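From the thread on structure requests for the teaching lab: each student submitted one protein with a one-line request. Submission from student K.M.:

"Model Serine protease from Lentzea tibetensis, tokens only."
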Amino acid sequence: MAYLDEHERAVIRPIKRMVEDEFLSRPGVIGVDIGEKFTGGRPTGRAAIVVYVCAKGSHHPQQIPASVEGIPTDIVAESIVLHRALLSPDEHQPVVAERHAVLRGGISIGPSRAVRVVPPDVSVPGDYVIVGTLGALVVSRTEKLVMGLTNFHVGCVDDAWMVGDRMVHPSRVDGGVQNLDDVGELNRAALSGSVNAAAVLLDPQRPCRAEILDIGAVTGSAPAPVGTPVRKRGRTTALTHGVVVSGDATIAVDFGDGIGVRKLRDQLRIESCAGRFGDHGDSGSVLVDVENRVVGLYCAGTASGSTGFANPIDRVLDQLDVDVLTPDVPESRKPEPAA
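Reply posted by the TA:
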């Protein structure tokens, strides 16, 4: 797999930023990135502004120019969707759920409350329960409280969320039961710029470990330059491997009724090493590098699942005012009593 070097990206980046909002305002355009131009399905070796559209050719309502300021464009027909999953509470739920007595990254989590979902997000309007992934454990910078990291669209879901909303593991999609399987409460969240994140304050009585299922102990956080091999452990696809191929992706994704379409800028784009990198229910997973440092927070992917998108982890941590929890970090499991 060939990667554009940082010099090529630095030349194209201001031009891409200049046109991305105008491109994304056109019907059918859902993403703008920097990558290699393909012609007839073959790589050309030329750097390009990559434009994701819902459909190509005559089905696309407005033509994208062949080049901008001398930089070629490359049109990619794909859908980009948030990778949470939902289920009507009336639908059949699994008899045996993946259930973990010790909380850690890579396991299912979801709100205890059901949310109202209407078409086109679902075929039949009604109350649905949500599932995503608890990606990793984090610790608040001030109080040193232990929390579980996930996405805004997993923990908060819609504009009716409140601090204190209860969370369950396994999720209700996976057969979790309200009250009986509660693991914590929504403590903070951010949906802005390049961040789509939420943190769940874990109940003091639930044991937890600063590790990710099938990956091991987390060692910290780090940036993810292009070419970084990464792994994630998600609720649906479990352990998958990929490579960071861009840190310049801007995507427009639909968060549903009450929130609508939001742009996430400067996202990591990950290409799978084999098969699907992510699927519905994997939102909230974290990406780790070969040293088990967290580098990104997975939130969305293409319909094929071969391409994923993630928030850079440094921006997530700063927005939530938390740090990645490692086995050697001091922690507190409950707030100090008021003076």
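TA comment: The radius of gyration is 20 Å. The first strand starts at residue 29 and ends at 39.
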